[in-house]
Design goal:
This protein is an all-alpha fold and about 260 residues long. The protein has one domain. It contains ten helices and no strands. α3 runs parallel beside α9 and α7 packs across α8. The longest helix has 26 residues. The chain starts with a helix and ends with a helix. This is Probable membrane transporter protein. Keywords: Cell membrane, Membrane, Transmembrane, Transmembrane helix, Transport.
Length: about 260
């Protein structure tokens, strides 16, 4: 890998860390940059290396948020544990499910999220006064720790967005708190998928650790920006990320 490609890759990792910390979707930047910088690397190795860099950024963002916001650990603790297992199972199943079958479904779901956020301006801007009943926590637990975690292991695009939307819709959190909770779960999904890729020998450790340094820097800045600018800013970034995600999935599906 040339010096120019390494610099491009490290810069992309920093940008991806920032995007991930604010609204999810950093893989849109980081994974294509990795494939561009190292075109001869097997796709599985690129995915594993991407997870290595991503887990450092998501963990850093999760710690930053946790220090400055109040999180619902009654839901997050069990969900994060389940996320590790279910994302690992998703990674093991990745080769068995053609992504061409999943992309149209994910595009429809992302568009539905975007339209809901656009036409409900107050959605996610204020924390709802909801009783944190066991039923609501159970729904969030299953969606975040099982369904979305498995999806992250098997495919991945939009994981952070789906997590944010789940915590807003089910637990009544605002965008900032939902993004904070999403980082905790995303760290678990990254760890589960990374463990599978690592045992299969699909991780470029030196490259991934170099990317991790920049991903962490971007994640710290992104979390601080989201906390400072508030839910309205996170909402705008999330809509931008969803738009790009849908476009990317459409190109992959029909180009």
């Amino acid at each position: 890998m040339s010096v120019q490609h390494l610099l491009l890759l490290f810069a992309a990792a920093g940008v991806a860390g920032w995007i991930d910390a604010v609204a999810g979707g950093g893989g849109l930047v980081q994974l294509p940059a990795l494939l561009l910088a190292a075109p001869n690397v097997p796709v599985a190795a690129a995915l594993g290396t991407n997870k290595l860099a991503s887990i450092t950024g998501t963990t850093t963002a999760a710690v930053t948020y946790a220090r400055r916001t109040k999180l619902d650990w009654r839901t997050l603790g069990p969900a994060a544990g389940l996320a590790v297992v279910c994302a690992g199972l998703g990674a093991l199943s990745a080769s068995a499910v053609p992504t061409s079958y999943l992309r149209p479904v994910i595009m429809v779901m992302l568009l539905a999220v975007a339209l809901f956020v656009v036409f409900r301006p107050q959605f996610g801007t204020l924390q709802a006064e909801l009783d944190q009943q066991a039923r609501r926590r159970a729904i969030a637990l299953v969606l975040a720790g099982v369904v979305i975690a498995f999806y992250d292991g098997i495919l991945g695009p939009g994981t952070g967005t789906f997590l944010i939307f789940t915590f807003i819709g089910v637990l009544g959190q605002d965008f900032v708190h939902s993004s904070a909770m999403a980082k905790v779960i995303n760290a678990g999904t990254n760890f589960g998928a990374l463990a599978v890729f690592a045992t299969q020998g699909h991780v470029l450790w030196l490259t991934g650790l170099g990317m991790a340094v920049f991903n962490v820097a971007g994640a710290r800045l992104g979390a601080a920006t989201a906390l400072k600018r508030g839910s309205g800013f996170v909402r705008l970034v999330l809509l931008a990320v969803v738009t790009v995600l849908v476009g990317k999935l459409a190109i992959d599906q029909w180009a």
